[in-house]
Amino acid sequence: MAVRVIIGTQWGDEGKGKITDYYAEKADVIVRFQGGNNAGHTIIFQNPATGKTEKFKLHVIPSGILHLGKKAVIGNGVVVDPGKLLEETEGLKEAGYGTDNLYISDRANITMPYHLIIDALEDKMKGKLGAGTTQRGIGPTYTDKAARYGIRFSDILDRGVLKEKLDLIVPYKQKYLKLFDSGESLSKQELFYSMIEYGNKLRNYITDTSKLICNEIKKGKEVLLEGAQGTHLDVDHGIYPYTTSSNTVAGNAATGSGIGPTMIDEVIGVVKAYTTRVGGGPVPTELEDETGNYLLDKGKEYGATTGRARRCGWLDMVMVRYSARVNGLTGIVITKLDVLGGLERLKAAVSYDYNGERIMDFPANMRILAECTPVYKEFPGWPDYSEEQWGEIVREGIGSLPKELKTYVRFISKEINTPIKLLSVGPVRHQTIEVKDGRV
Ligand code: GDP
Ligand code: IMO
Ligand code: MG
User: Fold this and answer.
1) 409: containing domain
2) What was the pLDDT predicted at 1?
3) Which one of the ligands is nearest to 230 CA?
4) CA of 157 to the centre of ligand 3 (A)
């Protein structure tokens, strides 16, 4: 029995989807606890029934849904665009994956059409201080949740409550939109009927998911809590204001799913073997050169949600050290090690230089961060193996890994004093090596 949290340790897109899907094989319940459809989690696997390779990009549905029979839960801490959720359920059904085991918290907040409009207008208005959001309405939905203007799933099942709330909210939003001179106007009636319709379509999924998860834990079932985004996008711990609007760290896994923190047994941090970033703000180890392009091309670093090219750079252990601390990591998974193959020398930042001062801890001040230059440790690279060669390495296990790769991953683990659980050497489910005792 275990309750395990999977967290991104960097700026998102570390491979959380692949790793959650991998662990989901042995889990009973898989839960999303924060974020919304700003997430893009890619899962690729060989269907044992057909032998065909299947690829899915999930945005708000937990990555465990592709293992039949598991319970997939959208927890209270998630914000959900109901139209987009229905598109996702339809896509899964068309591909032959049922959604009968999907559950949505009656307390989860809904991303309303006006949240999408406000997200675009505000991000543009902020100029250089804008995070370059995914334009999915995430920030405005969480703003309304905190300000208590939110519409929750329980509300769209209750015409009276929904009407009372919209009577208050719509005129206020209308006035707010006027500030931007955008010409956007809202229809209370349209909003009401579309939400009631969503309520009817989603009714069977909506429930008290905290109760469901806690009951499963009591029965000794294995639960996976799937983080979205990454630690450095956390609204408190990330590089504010270039963050998302939720707490992405492990502490929020309890709050966002409605379980007590004492129920969590393990916190697994997913560490991409190099750094990527989508959106604005300083990236100390960014490579705007040939090596950066190499990582972009070979790693196929294009956003799973917006298709934007990700900014690429060397691994930054100042960031990962911070993540190990604020998440209380009990283990790590290192992904995309195959992508680094073929580079003669690798670098990893171990500290920053700020006007001659050595900085070991990730600073809170974005101006200071922008003026930091990384202090690197260098490593020899390993060969650019073919898919077949990686396949052989996976079959033979850790002993067959090149010694340079072992040195690199041992360094990561030692820097944060955290054992390695898995090494990922390709995007497909089986391109994964288990590390039994945490040591390589
Ligand atoms: P997430 O948001 O953390 O789930 O990550 P994304 O799915 O947005 O981005 C990770 C990308 O890397 C996806 O295209 C994955 O299929 C891919 N990926 C995951 N692990 C590996 C790996 O070990 N090697 C390679 N080459 N690709 C990987
Ligand atoms: P996954 O789960 C990478 C980034 C956006 C932007 C900032 C705020 O796939 O790792 P938002 O729309 O949340 O208000 O945008 O956060 N961002 C992500 N970057 N991966 C993600 O999710 C992200 N979700 C949001 O690019 O800079
Ligand atoms: Mg992603």
Assistant:
1) 271-440
2) 63
3) 2
4) 31
Centroid of ligand 1 to alpha carbon of 390 (angstroms): 16
**Minimum CA distance residue for ligand 2 atom 3:** 12
Model confidence at 438, in pLDDT bands (50, 70, 90)? confident
336-358 per-position pLDDT tens digit: 999 999 999 999 999 999 999 99
Q: Determine, yes or no, domain membership for 214.
A: no
The one catalytic residue in 28, 41, 234, 338 is 41
Residues 290 and 398 in one domain: yes
* 4 contact partners, CB below 8 Å, separation of at least 6: 23, 27, 222, 223, 224, 225, 264, 265, 266, 267, 268
Report the predicted TM-score, pTM, of the whole model to 2 decimal places.
0.98
The total number of structural domains in the chain stands at 2
Same domain, 381 and 283: yes
Whether 180 and 303 share a structural domain: no
Does the C-beta of 42 come closer than 6 Å to ligand 1?
A: yes
The confidence score (pLDDT) of residue 25 equals 95
pLDDT digits (tens, 9 = 90+) for 356-411: 999 999 999 999 999 999 999 999 999 999 999 999 999 999 999 999 999 999 99
Ligand 1 pocket test, candidate residues 18, 231, 271, 310, most atoms within 8 A of CB: 18
Q: Which ligand 1 atom sits nearest the alpha carbon of residue 425?
A: 23
Ligand 1 pocket check for 338: Cβ under 6 Å: yes
Residue 41 annotated among the catalytic residues of the structure: yes
Ligand lying nearest the CA atom of residue 308: 2
The closest-lying atom of ligand 1 relative to the alpha carbon of residue 299 is 26
Answer yes or no: 13 catalytic.
Answer: yes
Domain shared by 186 and 300, yes or no: no
Atom of ligand 2 nearest to the CA of 40: 9
The reply to whether 291 and 440 lie within a common domain is: yes
